[in-house]
Each structure stands twice: as C-alpha cells, then as structure tokens.
Amino acid sequence: MAGVTRRRVLRSAAAGAAASALAGPRTAQAAQPSGQAAQPQNRAAQPSNQPAQLPNIVFIMADDLGYADVACYGRPDIATPHIDRIAARGVRFTQGYANSAVCSATRTALITGRYQYRLAVGLEEPVTTRFTGGLPADHPTLPGLLRQVGYRTALVGKWHLGSVQDYGPLQRGYDTFWGFRGGTIDYFSHRGTDDKPDLWDSDVRIEEVGYATHLLGKRAVETIAASVKAGRPFFLSLHFNAPHWPWETPDDEAESRRIAGSNLRHFDGGTQETYRRIIAEMDTQIGRVLDALEASGVAEDTIVVFTSDNGGERFSDTWPFTGRKTELLEGGLRIPALMSWPRRLKGAHVSDQPMITMDWLPTLLAAAGTAPDAGYPSDGIDLLPILTGQAPERPRTLHWRYRANAQAAMRDGNLKYLKIRDNTFLFDVVADPLERANLKTRRPEDFSRLQAAWAGWAATMLPERPDSFTETYTGSQLADHFGAGEAPTPPRPAAAGESPR
Questions:
Q1: What mean pLDDT do residues 1-23 have?
Q2: Mind listing the pLDDT tens digit for each residue in 52-104?
Q3: CATH number for the domain running over 397-466
Q4: Cβ within 8 Å of residue 157, ≥6 positions away
Q5: Residue 485 — very low, low, confident or very high, per pLDDT cuts 50/70/90?
Q6: 501 — pLDDT class (breaks 50, 70, 90)
Q7: Distant-in-sequence, close-in-space partners of 180: CB < 8 Å, separation ≥ 6
Q8: Which residues contact 459 (CB under 8 A, 6 or more apart)?
Q9: Degrees (nearest 5) of the Cα angle 493, 495, 498?
Q10: What is the DSSP string of 371-427?
Q11: 103 part of the active site
Q12: Fewer beta carbons within 10 Å, N or C terminal of the chain?
C-alpha cells in the first residue's frame, strides 16, 4: 500500500500497542431453505432504520496468520497487494485481537458474538478429531441472523465447529457450504489430520483435483456470481486454511506425498520462502474475489473484512510482539483486522480502537439494520459508530483464558494482566508491546485490581474441563520453547486416533 513502511506500521502499533447491479430490490425478507434446521427467532426488536438496500458482506479469515504477516502491517519481504487493497479502501485496526490463541475457540466467538467460554465447544482448544459435539442447535448465529433479514449465506472453506452430519454449517445458518469441516487439510490430497478425506459440498463428501487455496478462491468467485444473479444481498464467509500447516506451495506436491498418512504437522518441513509463497497464493485468490465484486458492480455496497483466527504459528512474523499461537502473550492474540465498505467508510483509515473477534457479529448485524438476539446478547460491541466518526474511540476491557500452561489474561485500557503457570505479570502493552517490563510490584493496586476483575469475570463463564483438549508446544518440538514441558496441571494427552486440528 502506497506510503506504508514497516517502521510506520510498527510505530502505529506501538503507539496504539460499485453501485448495485443486483436484479430486483434487496429488501429485508425472511428466507428458510427447505430441509434445513430453522434458526431460533431473533427476539431483538427489529430496528426501524433498516436500510432499504442491504450491503453484501464478504468475510475473509486466514488461518494462523501473524500480526505482521502482510505488507500493510509492515512485513517487508511479502507482497500482498490485494489484501492491501482492502486497507486502502477502508480501515486498518492496529489493536485487533482474536478471541483465543487457537482456531475453533475463536470461530465459536465469531459465529455467536460471545465469549467462547459460554459454550462447551468453545472450551476445546481446539476441536479435535474425536470431539462429537458442536454449536447448540438453538443458539443464534451470525449467518442465521442475517438469513432472517433476507441474506443468502454461504461458507466456503473451513468450518471446525462440529461434524458436518450433526453440527455442520447447513444446520447453523448457512444456505450453502463448500469446504472442509476439520482444522486443516493437505493442500493437495484434501485429507485431514486423521488421514480421512475432508472436502465437502453441502453434506456430501467430494473429490476435486487442485491446490486447496485455488479451489476455495474459485468457489468464492462462483458463489458471488450466483448470489448477484439471485438478486439478494449475500453473506459469504471465505475461510482459508492458508497459511496453516502443512507447509505446501502449489509446487510442493512431492511434500504432500511425503507426509501422506501423518497428522500433517511435519515439524521437519517448511521454510520462510514456503510460508511467504503460501500467503502470496492466498492473496492472489483474495484479488480474484475483489475483482469479482468489481466486475459484478457491487463493490461499492459490499463490506469486506479480512482477519485471522489467532496469532501466528512457527514461521509467522508477530513483531512488535512476542508469543505465538497457543499463548496469551500479545503475539498469540494480536491479528491483522481490515474492513472496507466504500459507501460508508473512508479509505486508508488507521484505527487504534481495540477490537476483538466477537465484535464482528454486532457490527455486521448493525450494518444490515438488525441486532443480536435479545436472549443471547453479544459480548462484543458495534464498531460502526466509531468507524463512521459518530462516536470516539474508547478503552476496552477484554478477557482470555487458555488451559495449557494455566494461562489467563485481561486487557483493561492500556494495562494487561497476564498469568502463565504460576507466574503473574502486569504490562502496559501500548508503551511496551514486547511485554518485557513487569509492573506488578511498581503498580500493585492496578495489579490486584485486574487480577480480581479477571477472577470475577471467569466466575461467570463455564469452568474449565480437565477432559477438554488444549494444544501447546514443547521444547522438543520448537527449539525456542526450551524448558517448556509439563504444566503444573498437564493438558490431557491426545487419545489413540485423536489428532489436534
């Protein structure tokens, strides 16, 4: 993006830590496809200012992408021109947070707009191949609530919130699904970590030849074309598996064959160049999606969101933070977050407003002129008043916990309470994004206040379950985790046939 340098991006992070061509009117109208489970009725009063023309929404989620893994967030060795287009046409958040340091927990918060710890599925860190539950059938979801006001809803890519047969996307608010239900797939064989085929069209397992990122991009473009032809507003969730392992570019089919039959984690694989190429391939497909919106004449009235489900993995760039996936250090939680809506939002805007994954539900529902179900109030906030200049940026109080290594965290204004095993910390994450200066003895009142506030919040959530899965890394897997091994309360080991996704 023109005028953006790594130094400028990192300074801001530290300082702040086409007219519609749709056929027919796009008005609010309920639509319930036959053969699908009905979503619970929205008990919230319908706002009287519902827009006569509803914006389309394209929500793009990368998998395990680090905070600085795209050019507009300062990475100097990767060109991401199409992701940068979203930033140039909209807002770039410098203080975007994931709801969890792993994927399925964050996705629970995204689809419900609530802390994931309110639901059993959200206690899995992440959902594994042996997990048999999922989202409760009576819980309102983002796609379901949008469908109630007339949207066509589609998921292309990763689900990871329960089995397709019992807890799949078609039973939780999506009209169509094309993708994979688990945590990742091999980019070529499309098999999951349990070595079973995991590519689906609706609830039917399919076989398709091709590199997964390319196939998802192609399907997303087709979904946009079909939605435009139908003449109704659409909500497209495009959830890539990139840049999640296995470390495979389009030229690495030999690596796919080498690791066939394994759990795909191949700690002996990958390079920085491979990782850069995986991101570049995703960026190209995002460009195809943006071009399809332009060609269809709907770009001006389409909200495009780009973000990640948690902090970066082993090859990621999380600067200026420390930590990575599975850790409540800033690097495990901070994520890129972009939003464009040309008709409503100014372009090339940088926001220091702290935000979190669960904010997307109330924000996108407000854009569609509706609201969360009154029986399931969101724990997030509607960001639109802040983004449109109708309200000032404001401090936030956000909470996390993670069972591996007995982790807890709370952000309150610029301060952050952090616990890892028996060690506790207080950081000013705006002045000290690396989390180096532990202020707990210099500011004991603040430390005690945040520690007590976190405990009070935790008491309102479901308790941790010793039988839930929680992923972590050890010194034998990653050299920079030397000394990391058994936690005081060891996480449950994977059972026979079970694999982290």
A1: 40
A2: 689 999 999 999 999 999 999 999 999 999 999 999 999 999 999 999 999 99
A3: 3.30.1120.10
A4: 61, 179, 180, 216, 237, 238, 239, 240, 241
A5: low
A6: low
A7: 157, 158, 159, 190, 192, 198, 199, 200, 241
A8: none
A9: 110
A10: ---TTS--SS---HHHHTTSS-----EEEEEETGGGEEEEEETTEEEEEETTEEEEE
A11: yes
A12: N
Among the listed residues 72, 82, 103, 139, the single catalytic one is 103
CA distances from 282 to 48, 285, 413 (A): 39, 5, 34
Average pLDDT, the chain: 89
Give 371's Cβ-side CA count (13 Å radius).
Answer: 14
Q: How confident is the model at residue 487 (pLDDT cuts 50, 70, 90)?
A: very low
**Alpha carbons 291 and 263: distance in angstroms, whole number:** 36
Residue 380 has pLDDT above 70, yes or no: yes
DSSP 419-467: EETTEEEEEETTT-TT-----TTTSHHHHHHHHHHHHHHHTTSPPP-TT
Contact 245, 313 (CB under 8 A): yes
Report the distance separating Cα 100 and Cα 123, nearest Å: 10
Distance CA(416)–CA(413), nearest Å, equals: 8
The stretch 147-159 carries a mean pLDDT of: 98
Peptide bond into 320 cis (omega under 30): yes
CA distance 9 to 69: 12
**According to the model, what pLDDT value does residue 491 have?**
52
CA dist 408 and 406 (Å) reads 7
Does the pLDDT value for residue 28 go beyond 70? no
Contacts of 219 (CB under 8 A, 6+ apart): 156, 178, 179
Q: Which of 82, 160, 244, 399 is catalytic?
A: 160
Predicted confidence at residue 37, as pLDDT, reads 46
Residue 401 near residue 109 (C-beta atoms within 8 A): no
Angle at 21 between CA 91 and CA 359, to 5 degrees: 30
Question: Is the preceding omega at residue 488 within 30 degrees of 0, hence cis?
Answer: no
- Is residue 330 within 8 A of residue 10, CB to CB? The reply is no
Above 80 in pLDDT, residue 282? yes
- Asked if 217 and 288 count as a contact pair (C-beta separation under 8 A), the reply is yes
Residue 336 has pLDDT above 90, yes or no: yes
Task: Count the alpha carbons within 13 Å of 354 in the hemisphere toward its beta carbon.
Answer: 23
Instruction: Determine the average pLDDT of the residues in 304-312.
Output: 98
Topology classification of domain 53-387: Alkaline Phosphatase, subunit A (3.40.720)
Q: What band does 426 get if pLDDT is binned at 50, 70 and 90?
A: very high
Q: Which structure tokens are listed for 492? A: 């449950």
- Is the pLDDT reported for residue 43 higher than 50? no
CB 180 within 8 A of CB 216: no
Q: Could you tell me which residues are beta bridge partners of residue 400? A: 409
Residue appearing with tokens 């319930």: 32
82 a catalytic residue: no
User: Running DSSP on this structure, what letter comes out for residue 165?
Assistant: H
pTM: 0.89
